[in-house]
Amino acid sequence: MCKVIKVKRSSYYHWIKAGMIVKKVDKQLNELILAIFIQGRNTYGTRPIRDKLIELYGLVVSRKRISNIMKDLNLKVKMKRRFKNTTNSNHNLPIAPNILNRDFYASNANEKWVGDITYIQTGEGWLYLATVIDLYSRKVVGWSMDDTMKVSLVNDALNMAITHRNPAKGLLWHTDRGSQYASYSHRDLLLKNNIVQSMSRKGNCWDNAVAESFFKTLKNNIIYDHYFYTKK
Q: What does each C-alpha distance from 23 to 33, 60, 133, 149 come to in angstroms?
């Protein structure tokens, strides 16, 4: 190599010893990690940053090295807020069995859907968001928003998904035990569309982990960074 580029060996070894190569690579990597961290709204830890480096730049970097660089750059991940329950499972309405049983894998689209409700604070009061997620693609296929948690909130979200996806008979629909999902109106909607109902165990948010995870991502990446002055 030295012969090709006409450089003395002693100069090459001096360059190596001075660490110029390492400094150059580290500087570029630091800039990439900083850019990814900012684009992730200060929510990306070592795992998402590692995945983004591979996806965007084809760089394979260990999580330990990323962690050390984040410490050097004083990049601190925003802490997640505590979970707040939005549904009431203390009711006398019929409860469906936990058919899903934490099996969040789906081999085809419109095979298994999960739903949940979350809250969003605004300057005019609370807004409630109901979503329908297809476990095959983890895509939100239906949603509804209102300033009350009436049964219409979850029915509207499910109706949107049904209209857009037109699922075949036997679709599995999993939610928590909230009164909205246990209501007679919601059960009639499921019966009308040949949808099988499944519900989490009481007080067990892990039974609906995919829906919970989506809301945490939504809030950490977008909602907690903004103040919405109006419900609109």
A: 15, 18, 45, 56
Alpha carbon 232 to chain centroid, angstroms:
24
What are the structure tokens assigned to 174, written together? 């999993």
Residues 6+ apart with CB under 8 A from 63: 46, 47, 50
Radius of gyration of the chain (CA): 25
Give yes or no for a contact between 85 and 191, defined as CB atoms under 8 angstroms apart: no
pTM: predicted TM-score of the whole model, two decimal places: 0.64
3-state secondary structure of 51: helix
Residues in contact with 159: Cβ distance below 8 Å, sequence separation at least 6, in sequence order: 142, 189
Residues 126 and 123: their CA atoms lie apart, in Å, by 8
pLDDT per residue, tens digit, the chain (232 aa), is 889 999 898 888 887 776 655 555 678 899 899 889 888 878 788 999 999 999 888 889 999 999 999 998 888 887 655 545 555 566 678 999 999 999 999 999 999 999 999 999 888 889 999 999 999 999 999 999 999 999 999 999 999 999 999 999 999 999 999 999 999 999 999 999 999 999 999 878 889 999 999 998 898 888 877 888 899 8
Domains annotated for the chain, with CATH where assigned, are 2-72 (no CATH), 112-225 (3.30.420.10)
| 6 conformational bin, left if phi > 0, alpha if psi -120 to 50, beta if neither | left
